[in-house]
Design goal:
The complex is a heterotrimer. In chain A, about 30% of the residues lie in helices and about 25% in strands. By secondary structure, chain A is an alpha+beta fold. Chain A folds into three domains: about 1-85, OB fold (Dihydrolipoamide Acetyltransferase, E2P), CATH 2.40.50; about 120-180, E3-binding domain (Dihydrolipoamide Transferase, Irregular), CATH 4.10.320.10; about 200-399, Chloramphenicol acetyltransferase-like domain (Chloramphenicol Acetyltransferase). In chain A, strands 9, 12, 15, 16, 17, 18 and 19 form a seven-stranded mixed sheet that branches. Chain A has a four-stranded antiparallel sheet with strand order 1-8-6-3, with no helix packed on it. Chain A has a four-stranded antiparallel sheet with strand order 5-4-2-7, with no helix packed on it. In chain A, a hairpin with a 2-residue loop joins strand 4 (about 35-40) and strand 5. Chain A is rod-shaped and about 130 Å long. The N and C termini of chain A lie far apart (about 115 Å). Chain B is of the alpha/beta class. Chain B has a single domain (about 15-315), classed as Thiamin diphosphate (ThDP)-binding fold, Pyr/PP domains (Rossmann fold, 3-Layer(aba) Sandwich), CATH 3.40.50.970. Chain B is about 40% helix and about 10% strand. In chain B, helix 6 links the parallel strand 4 and strand 5. The longest helix of chain B has 26 residues, at about 15-40. By secondary structure, chain C is an alpha/beta fold. Chain C has two domains: about 1-190, Rossmann fold (3-Layer(aba) Sandwich); about 205-330, Rossmann fold (3-Layer(aba) Sandwich). Helices cover about 35% and strands about 20% of the residues of chain C. In chain C, strand 7 (about 150-155), helix 7 and strand 8 (about 175-180) form a beta-alpha-beta unit. The two termini of chain C are about 30 Å apart. The chains are: A alpha+beta, B alpha/beta, C alpha/beta. Chains in contact: A-B, A-C, B-C. The interface between B and C is large, with 48 and 45 residues.
Chain lengths: ~400, ~325, ~325
């Protein structure tokens, strides 16, 4: 049994109205015979039949308007018995692939702007969001006073870049490729390069700093807090003076060769409150009187923590000291900051048992370590360098 | 397709049978397309060639394998007569991957590199400059090929027609222009769109040899085409044939044919090129009743196989959506 | 105006294009130049002067005023194995062959399912500045840059004028080359290291950190002058010469804008629906969170280009407007 259905004559034809049956039940039809006239929006069209046989039943009255695919008549094949047709339109529709089924819909990921009501550029908003900076407190220098990227960057530096690491950890790397956390990225790049390129060797020496500590305590006793010196200043001075005898630890290694530096610019690793660290330099540290050195050290620390330091201070250290201060651990195995060739580490000075003249006594001890570039120096010279620092610390008044 | 460039038509039994079979292939193929269209298996526009089969079949007899063909959006007949496998043409109609254009083109854009079949051009008049260029390339490279360009009489109102006539004649290029004059540009009758309704006289004004041919008579078309192709291959420059014909069916599928009368349609149907050849061949004894039955059976078997092949063919994966926009190979 | 770069011989843009044509005509027998007045007249802008004597009328082919006809013939010839260079005298006349470029050249590869590529080069002059008034001053290259299936390039330097043609001819797909009319008389130094050149990358013509100025073709030189002026005001502008208008080199654009966080696009087309609009949209799509200011545009006024010099100047992008736009996005 064949079913004659309302044909689709064009993609824009959705339905047709039966105007006239050109065949009646019992009539024989062959392929191509006209069976009905259907009115469409383009006019009356004579419809042909593709099933040969005998018209069994007309299922649609003249005047009926039906969608494409609706059964209109049943046609009995020669010799077959009539069966009632299913009058649905969907039966003849075949499955076609759809674009939606196979292609993911394009998605535009648009994070919402992080602050409302403030005129700030997208770049500024993104940086502020990632660095926990309140845009309301940032003066704008852009078009019409809008806050632009450099304004927020400056504000972040004023705050000491404190939020950098934590905010970056929270938001993660996202957006369109602008740096998420410049400091973390800079540390990562420098340290990875150091470990990749520099053949480090490490030496350690426990130094009795009791004399130095006592001398400092005595010296600070009758001074105002802002004039007091710290152990770190002594250490810096001792390192600076020692470097004059051991210049292979002071300079830079680039393009396959070591360049010793005439000037001694001592980098001082300073941890930031929110995480991360930077190592600005104290210029010509070896030649500064201790008081001067102390002033410079205090000034630098304060400025770094306030985010106000000069880029030249970051760029030109010739060696670095990393000192763990008073709440640190016993010793540190530091990583050289390229292109420098050495770094001195100082653990937290603590009172420990020490053998003096065969007798255990309580002394203030500090573990000094040296990481140095084996392309430039050897362990023997490194040991002499550490010993020189130790010797100077035994005679603090000369520093 | 003939392998010779003999300008004469030799009506041997086998040749008459071949002409009949070629026309019947087109007729049955397109009837099937109409059916598949009403079932929504073929979509878009579907322009049927039924009634005009003698022109494509007659002209193709005159071509060599390396000659080029440029056709229009009513080109299923030309594709089949040119020798593109019926299954691949049907797969193209259904938009399937095994279609001769990977299903990208559909009914209006049949292309085939193997037979130098350059479309399937569905902007009226747009294929004519293409044919001029193909012929120019053959001429400049010293190749003896001919380019045949089919178009309807509607195209002659376009500027591209006149520009192409002029260029081909001016440069004496090896093009056979075949105008299939079926009297209606969609629904606009020739008489209400052209000041000069003898189309071939337009070509004469470009000093191009031109003739009107009975497009309902396959032998007449083949004879004219063989003479023309022979002359063109001999260096005579372009030739123009106006084949007068009629489409028996609507312009496209969705057409109530308000612009022409049933009487006119019936009068032309009486000149059906297939019936015409059959009657002549039976009378002349070139074909017998059993030949006709055998041809019909051959054609239906080929058609069934073509439909089965097309319906079994996969869809082009969506991942290839952009694959054929630009040529992927790097410049060499 | 001077397109000087370091080293190399001094040459005019016109001579650079002619040398490019001469070179490819000498090297590849499949190439030929076709267009209106390219032969005996020597080219509307004297680009092809002397080539007729050297290569003869078959390969330096004067055409009638039939843009659709000869562009279509170029497409056909490309399909037939030639490497045609079609000169459409100016973009203003290319409207008459837009059908062939859009509906034939750009579609054939796709609609033939990848069977046919069209290795065609079309050259046209574009742009205003010679007081040629409303019908002869268009910059419509962005209309072509809208079309998938073709490449669109705009050489702005003598080096690109000299070397882009050969790369374009090696491309298997249609390439449109837009030569700005104001550049033909420009003298510059050929970059001796520039052969061969790519035709899909933008070039940074001037590095800078404060704002990215994106432009192409005739506007490049106005933009470079603007950048120099800006430098005097303490604003370092980076100038990008797009070179390829389709495809657009997103990577070069976005790398620069992410760095400068500000962009101004200089485009001689009308603002509405312009190439500048497209680039602006891409910057917003790809660089939104890196921006410090809205993207600026310096385009032609929305008026048919007027005849009197002062009005024509007022209608086109000029250096002061570029400087002002850059300053406004920088906020100074």
């Amino acid at each position: 049994m064949g079913i004659f259905r309302m044909p689709s004559l064009g993609a824009d034809m959705e339905a047709g109205t039966l105007v006239e049956w050109l065949k009646q039940p019992g009539d024989r039809v062959k392929r191509g015979d006209l069976i009905a006239v259907v009115e469409t929006q383009k006019g009356a069209i004579e419809i042909e039949v593709f099933e040969p046989g005998t018209v069994a039943e007309l299922l649609l009255p003249v005047g009926a308007t039906v969608p494409v695919g609706t059964a209109m008549a049943s046609i009995r094949e020669d010799g077959a018995v009539a069966v009632a047709p299913a009058p649905d339109a969907a039966a003849m529709k075949e499955e076609r692939p759809t674009a939606a089924a196979t292609m993911p819909a394009p998605q535009l990921q648009v994070p919402p702007p992080p602050s409302q009501g403030i005129k700030a550029s997208p770049a500024a908003r993104k940086f502020a969001e990632e660095h926990d900076i309140n845009l309301a407190s940032v003066p704008g220098s852009g078009p019409d006073g809008a806050i632009v990227f450099v304004d927020v960057e400056a504000a972040w530096q004023r705050q000491g870049g404190a939020a950098a690491t934590t905010a970056a950890a929270r938001t993660g790397a996202k957006g369109d490729g602008a740096p998420v956390d410049g400091m973390r990225a800079a540390i990562a790049a420098a340290m990875a390069r150091s470990k990749r390129e520099i053949p480090h060797y490490y030496l350690g020496q426990t130094v009795d700093v009791t004399i130095a500590a006592d001398w400092l305590a005595q010296r600070n006793a009758d001074r105002k807090p802002e004039e007091r010196a710290v152990f770190g200043a002594l250490l810096l001075k001792a390192i600076g003076l020692s470097l004059k005898k051991y210049p292979e630890f002071n300079g830079s290694f680039a393009d396959g060769r070591f360049a010793a530096s005439a000037a001694i610019h001592l980098g001082m690793a300073i941890a930031l409150r929110g995480g991360g660290l930077i190592a600005p330099a104290i210029h010509d540290a070896a030649d500064l009187p201790l008081d001067q050195l102390m002033i410079r050290l205090r000034d630098l620390t304060n400025r770094v923590r306030a985010g106000r330091f000069r880029s030249s201070e970051l760029a030109d250290a010739t060696i670095t000291l990393t000192s763990l201060g008073e709440r640190g651990v016993d010793w540190v195995q530091p990583i050289i900051y390229p292109p420098q060739v050495a770094i001195v580490g100082a653990g937290t000075p603590t009172v420990r048992p020490w053998i003096v003249d065969g007798v255990p006594v309580a002394r203030q001890l500090c573990d000094l370590t040296l990481a140095a570039d084996h392309r430039v120096s050897d362990g023997h010279r490194g040991a002499l360098f550490l010993r020189a620092i130790e010797a100077l610390l035994q005679n603090p008044e000369a520093l | 397709m003939s392998e010779t460039s003999d300008p004469k038509v030799h009506l041997t039994r086998s040749h008459v049978r071949a002409l009949y079979q070629e026309m019947l292939r087109i007729r049955r193929f397109e009837e099937k397309c109409a059916e598949l269209y009403t079932q929504e298996k073929i979509r878009g526009f579907l322009h049927l060639y039924i009634g005009e089969e003698a022109i494509a079949v007659g002209v193709m007899q005159a071509l060599q394998p390396l000659d080029a063909v440029v056709a229009t959006y009513r080109e299923h007949g030309h594709a089949l007569a040119r020798g593109i496998e019926m299954g691949r043409v049907m797969a193209e109609m259904l938009g399937r991957q095994d279609g001769c254009s990977r299903g990208h083109g559909g009914s209006m854009h049949i292309f085939d590199a193997a037979t130098r079949f350059y479309g399937g051009n569905a902007i009226v008049g747009g294929g004519l400059p293409l044919a001029v260029g193909l012929a120019l390339a053959d001429r400049m490279q010293g190749r003896p090929q001919v380019t045949v360009c089919f178009f309807g009489e509607g195209a002659v109102a376009e500027g591209e027609f006149h520009e192409s006539m002029n260029l081909a004649a001016l440069w004496q290029l090896p093009v056979l222009f075949v105008c299939e004059n079926n009297l209606y540009a969609m629904g606009t009758a020739l008489a209400i769109s052209e000041s000069e309704t003898d189309i071939h006289r337009k070509a004469e004004s470009y000093r191009m040899p031109a003739a009107a041919v009975d497009g309902m008579d396959v032998v007449a078309v083949e004879t004219a085409a063989r003479r023309a192709v022979e002359a063109i291959r001999g260096g005579a420059g372009p030739v123009f044939l106006e084949c007068r014909t009629y489409r028996f069916r609507a312009h496209s599928m969705f057409d109530a044919q308000l612009y022409r009368s049933k009487d006119e349609i019936e009068a032309w149907k009486a000149k059906c090129p297939i019936e015409h050849l059959r009657a002549w061949a039976l009378q002349a004894g070139s074909l017998h009743a059993e030949d006709l039955t055998a041809v019909e059976a051959d054609v239906l078997a080929e058609l069934d196989a073509a439909v089965a092949f097309a319906e079994a063919s996969p869809w082009e994966p969506v991942e290839r959506l952009l694959a054929d926009v630009m040529t992927p190979e790097a410049p060499s | 105006m001077s397109g000087t770069s370091a080293g190399g011989a001094e040459i005019t843009y016109r001579d650079a294009v002619r040398e490019a044509l001469r070179e490819v005509l000498q090297q590849d027998p499949r190439t030929f130049l076709m267009g209106e007045d390219v032969g005996r007249y020597g080219g509307c802008y004297a680009v092809s002067k002397g080539l007729l004597d050297e290569f003869g009328p078959e390969r330096i082919r004067d055409t009638p005023l039939s843009e659709a006809g000869f562009v279509g013939a170029g497409i056909g010839a490309a399909l037939g194995g030639m490497r045609p260079i079609v000169e459409v005298m100016t973009v203003n006349f290319s409207m008459l062959c837009l059908d062939q470029i859009l509906n034939t050249a750009a579609t054939i590869r796709h609609m033939s399912g990848g069977q046919f590529s069209v290795p065609l080069v079309i050259r046209m002059a574009t742009g205003a500045g010679r007081q040629l008034a409303a019908q002869h001053s268009h910059s419509l290259e962005n209309w072509y840059a809208h079309i998938p299936g073709i490449r669109v390039v705009a050489p702005a330097t003598v080096t690109d004028a000299r070397f882009m043609l050969r790369t374009a001819l090696l491309d298997p797909d249609p390439v449109l080359i837009f030569e700005h009319v104001m550049l033909y008389n420009m003298t510059g130094s050929l970059d001796p290291a520039a052969d061969p050149v790519d035709i899909d990358r933008a070039a940074v013509r001037r590095p800078g950190r404060d704002v990215t100025l994106i432009t192409y073709g005739g506007s490049l030189w106005k933009t470079l002058v603007a950048a120099t002026e800006l430098a005097g005001q303490g604003i370092e502008a980076e100038v990008i010469d797009l070179r390829s208008l389709r495809p657009l080199d997103d990577a070069t654009i976005t790398a620069s804008v992410r760095r400068t966080r500000r962009a101004v696009i200089v485009d001689e087309g009308w603002r509405s629906g312009s190439l500048a609009a497209e680039i602006s949209a891409r910057i917003v799509e790809q660089c939104f969170w890196s921006l410090d200011a809205p993207v600026g545009r310096v385009c032609s006024a929305e008026v048919p280009i007027p005849y009197p010099k002062h009005l024509e100047d007022a209608a086109l992008p000029q250096t002061p407007a570029i400087v002002a736009a850059a300053r406004s996005v920088v906020g100074r």
